[in-house]
Structure formats: C-alpha cells, structure tokens
Amino acid sequence: MAGGYLEVITGSMFSGKSEELIRRVRRVVIARKKAVVVKPSIDTRYSASEVRSHDGNGLDAHVVDVARPEEILALAKSANADVVAIDEAQFFSPAIVDVVMSLVDEGRRVIVAGLDMDFARRPFGAMPVLMAMADEVLKLKAICAVCGEPATFNQRLINGQPARRSDPVVMVGGQEKYEARCRRCHQLAD
Ligand SMILES: [Zn+2]
Fold this sequence. Notes:
Elements: E1 5-11, H1 17-30, E2 35-40, E3 50-52, E4 58-60, E5 62-64, H2 71-79, E6 83-86, H3 96-105, E7 109-115, H4 127-133, E8 136-140, E9 142-143, E10 150-151, E11 153-158, E12 161-162, E13 176-181
Parallel strand pairs: 1-7, 1-8, 2-5, 2-6, 6-7
Antiparallel strand pairs: 3-4, 9-10, 11-12, 11-13
Residues 144, 146-147, 149, 181-182, 184-185 line the site of zinc ion.
C-alpha cells in the first residue's frame, strides 16, 4: 500500500462536516477503492448504522463503542480498507489517537470528522491532537443562528436558556437544543 495520510475535517455543528466526509468517501467508492466508515455508539441522531449529514445524505457505517476505538483496526483489516472514515471522532476515548496513527502507518488514508470544541468552547476529546498530527486540516464554519455571520461555536440551550459551563459535555435524555453561533452571540451561563 502507498503511504498513509491523515485528513481532519472539523468545525462547529451544522458546518457541513459529515457532508464533506460523505463527499470524500463517495469519491473513494467511485475510484473502486475500499472504504470503511465508522461512527461512535453515542451518536444515534439519525440512524444506528449510517453516517448522515443534516441534509439527509447517508453512508452505511459500523458503530463502534466509544471506549473501544481499537475495534476500528480489526474492521479496517478484515475489509482490507484503503480508506477509513471516522465521523464524530470527538466522542471516542483518547486511545483513538493511537488507533488513527496505526491506520496511517499501515498505509491507509484516514478521514476524521469531528467537533473541535464543545458547547463551552473547550477543545473536544482527541480532536486537537488529531488536528496537530494531520497532514491536512479543513475547518468549516456554520452560519450564526442569531446574526447570520460565520459561526465557529456550538450554542447549547436547555429549555431555551444558555447552558452552564459546569454542565456535562454529553447529556443523555436532556431537553437540549443546539445552534451554531458566532463569538459575539455565543452565550454561556456561569
Ligand atoms: Zn452571531
């Protein structure tokens, strides 16, 4: 296999990260190469076994436990994958970094998509490390839901109110809603 390569697609929610990942994987398939698509078990927004963009495009995906990213190595091996695409990578345990670097060392092209920051504007999971180690990084912007300017932050609203900094990063079953917002419009309660 040719030399491996790491691409990271990042940015806020609604910035088109999954859409861009899907676009790149579609091109791999057109080139008759083998792609394996992975998503973490925590992301069940649209479908248990598909990566979907907000515009409704989808790709079949393997669901991998967030605490066991090393399972991706076996998936890539058994599929003899030229390309491994990992969506919502921020949710995986820190071991995802070694997994991604192993895939690259094996000569595979790895496409990672994920949020660079959480709702409190903190770097999210292993994304900062993956961005630093990548051959190529694309940081996408969304549109601010309040003012219409380019948006780089994730606004979390709980019952319509800005979330508090101390709230857990992942809430299960909460009445929460997210918007993309610019620096000026992003709000965080103390
Ligand atoms: Zn704004």
